[in-house]
Design a protein that fits this description.
Oligomer: single chain
Number of strands: 0
Number of helices: 10
Order of helices and strands: HHHHHHHHHH
Largest sheet: none
Structural class: mainly alpha
Radius of gyration: 19 Å
Shape: elongated
């Protein structure tokens, strides 16, 4: 009598390697949630080599694909994703905005400059301000510079759309001076 196998037929190869990256990425479009989850886990196992392709998927027209890509990037913590994650803070879907914020929190300081730059230019966006507040409030415990704490205070101000861009510009200038940029 032969031993039964535990193979799943027609499942994508989820062996973590850049060689099967295209297959895993296309599986994120699957209607089968288990297949998407397995593909996402394999992409996370590949790590930063999967980052650029996942970043591209953050702008996919399909919500579920954007969600899977964001979820993977939260775990991978690829700093190259920061600008696109900031843009996703204005996604029409709440869960995407939340995941984008979680991704920026996971990136720590690597996500600060793109977030502050967005607040300077788009500080009138309610969704961006809400996401930025979540990010900065969560990072507060991680020893933020005083200029960034001032941005958090501006976001909590009675007229955040007016004061946030100026506070964000001051924080951006301070961080650039601090790092010599």
């Amino acid at each position: 009598m032969s031993e039964p196998t535990n193979q799943i037929h027609d499942a994508p190869d989820t062996t973590p390697s850049p060689a099967n990256l295209d297959t895993l990425l296309s599986t994120l479009h699957s209607h089968n949630g288990l297949e998407r989850e397995r593909a996402r886990q394999a992409l996370v196992a590949i790590g930063q080599p999967a980052g650029p392709a996942l970043i591209d998927l953050l702008t996919d027209p399909y919500h579920q694909v954007r969600w899977e890509a964001a979820k993977a990037l939260v775990e991978i913590r690829d700093p190259r994703a920061a600008p696109t994650l900031v843009a996703r803070l204005e996604d029409e879907e709440f869960d995407m905005r939340w995941l984008a914020a979680e991704g920026l929190i996971a990136l720590g300081r690597a996500g600060l400059l793109p977030l502050l730059a967005a607040l300077v230019t788009r500080g009138d966006s309610v969704w961006l301000r809400q996401g930025a507040h979540h990010v900065l409030n969560s990072m507060f415990r991680k020893d933020l510079p005083a200029a960034v704490i001032a941005v958090l205070a501006a976001l909590e101000d009675g007229a955040p759309g007016l004061v946030t861009p100026q506070a964000a510009q001051a924080a951006l200038d301070a961080l650039r001076d601090e790092s010599g940029l």
